[in-house]
Every structure is written in structure tokens, then in C-alpha cells.
Design goal:
The chain is an alpha/beta fold. It folds into two domains: 8-179, Vaccinia Virus protein VP39 (Rossmann fold), CATH 3.40.50; 185-227, no CATH class. The protein is 41% helix and 21% strand. The protein has nine helices and seven strands. The protein has helices spanning 8-14, 31-38, 52-64, 98-107, 126-135, 169-174, 176-180, 184-204, 211-227, and strands at 21-25, 44-49, 71-75, 90-96, 117-122, 138-148, 151-160. The chain has a seven-stranded mixed sheet, with helices on both faces. Strand 6 and strand 7 form a beta hairpin. Helix 4 runs parallel beside helix 5 (126-135) and helix 8 packs antiparallel against helix 9.
């Protein structure tokens, strides 16, 4: 992968980028901002990194692409790398756990004007992202799910809502837009997850009874019940 040829995961993210200014949080090598500028998806970009090594890699990449006048590489924690004065139109946060993405959004929400589009790509635990969006009244306008190198990735696109956002437990867990049009990859993911959860529950049935185990069993049973409401038939990849 490089700035001209993104992974399928980042290509999927890129198709939702719009506006004049992009902020890519946790930008690593700054491939996504370089691609966005190179393909005229935005006019300028901010590449944010909290770790010094990836920050230097991002700077080198931007210099190699001769995009230093278009992309500002900044060292900082999460959304702390942007200011309201930057007038960011689009924010991407990709390639990390859903819990961490939600934490980044929560800790930096004072940096959000409410005019941005959020494009979020959690590697795992996407329900944490959706729960944060619901709590803070960001509407999910699109979702995508793809399979790359044997791993399933979800992309969640959100914009600030003037109305209260309400999602069911199933929508938070699986994704409202993904549930509307379940793809073979979506069905494959949840078939696998259902089998996995049932296996864990079976193993726990022989474990010592205590409050912690009983709470865990209850949580697993709830998740299994939710997944079993989805039609997972006709799964062809």
C-alpha cells in the first residue's frame, strides 16, 4: 500500500470524503490525506499523529509527495491537533478499536463544530462508536462492510443531527445501514460471531457459578438473542 494505491479498507473510507479540508486522526504514513489531495477529494488536509515515529513517517511521506503546502502534519493527541479555526469539513479516524475511537471523540468533542462529516473505521467493537454517536446526536448516514486479507472491516459515516438520534440495541450492535441491506460479508461476520458466542457460552456452562460469570453469561445470551433476529440465510461470497 502507498499514497497512490490504498488498501481496500482505506479506499472504502476515501469514497466518503468530501469538503475542502480533511483531518485524518492517527494518520500513520499519511497515505489517506495524500490520496485525498492527489485525487482532488479535498483542497487541503491535516495529518494528526500522537506517536513520534509515525509522525515523522507522515512528514516524510508528505515531503516525498511534494504536498507540504497542502498537508499540515501535526503531533498531538486525537482531536487536539485541530482547531475550530481550521474549518475542517471531514474527519477520518481509522484502523483502531471502536472503544478508542469513541474515547478520542469524547475527549476532543469541544473541537467539533458540528459541521464536519465523521468517517470512522473501527477494527473491532464498532458498537462503542455507534453508542457515542447516538449519545451525542450524530446521525449515521452511511455504513460499509468489507473483507480484506481475511479480516472484516466496518466504515461508519456520520453527520451532526438537529434531532435526537435513537438507535435500537440491534442497530448499535450491528449497524442501522448495514441491517437495511445485509451483504454476504455482513452475514458471514455475524454467522461467525454467533457461533463464537455460543461456543463461549457453552464453555462457561461448566465453569464455577459466581456473580461475574453469571453477568457474563447474561451479556452473551443477550448478544446471541440479538444476532438471532437477523436473517443470515443465503450467504454467498
Amino acid at each position: 500500500m502507498n499514497a497512490e494505491n490504498l488498501s481496500l479498507r482505506l479506499q472504502t473510507v476515501a469514497q466518503y470524503i468530501q469538503g475542502e479540508t480533511l483531518a485524518d486522526i492517527g494518520s500513520d504514513h499519511a497515505y489517506l490525506p495524500c490520496f485525498a489531495i492527489g485525487n482532488k477529494l479535498v483542497e487541503k488536509a491535516i495529518a494528526g499523529e500522537v506517536v513520534h515515529g509515525p509522525f515523522q513517517s507522515a512528514r516524510q511521506q508528505v515531503e516525498q509527495q511534494k504536498l507540504t503546502c497542502k498537508i499540515d502534519v501535526r503531533l498531538g493527541d486525537g482531536l487536539q491537533v485541530i482547531e475550530l479555526a481550521d474549518e475542517v469539513d471531514c474527519i477520518t479516524i481509522c484502523g483502531m478499536g471502536g472503544s478508542l475511537i469513541a474515547q478520542i471523540l469524547e475527549q476532543g468533542k469541544e473541537r467539533l463544530s458540528g459541521k464536519e462529516r465523521l468517517i470512522l473505521q473501527p477494527n473491532i467493537a464498532s458498537e462503542f462508536v455507534r453508542r457515542w454517536l447516538q449519545t451525542n446526536n450524530w446521525a449515521i448516514i452511511a455504513e460499509d462492510i468489507i473483507l480484506e486479507d481475511g479480516k472484516v472491516y466496518e466504515v461508519i459515516v456520520s453527520e451532526k443531527s438537529e434531532q435526537e438520534v435513537a438507535l435500537s440495541d440491534l442497530e448499535i450492535f450491528c449497524g442501522p445501514k448495514l441491517l437495511e441491506s445485509p451483504t454476504p460479508v455482513f452475514k458471514m461476520k455475524w454467522k461467525s460471531e454467533l457461533a463464537h458466542l455460543k461456543q463461549i457460552l457453552k464453555q462457561m456452562s461448566t465453569s464455577q457459578a459466581n456473580l461475574r460469570n453469571e453477568e457474563r453469561k447474561h451479556e452473551l445470551t443477550q448478544k446471541i438473542t440479538l444476532i438471532e433476529t437477523i436473517d443470515l440465510t443465503h450467504n454467498c461470497l
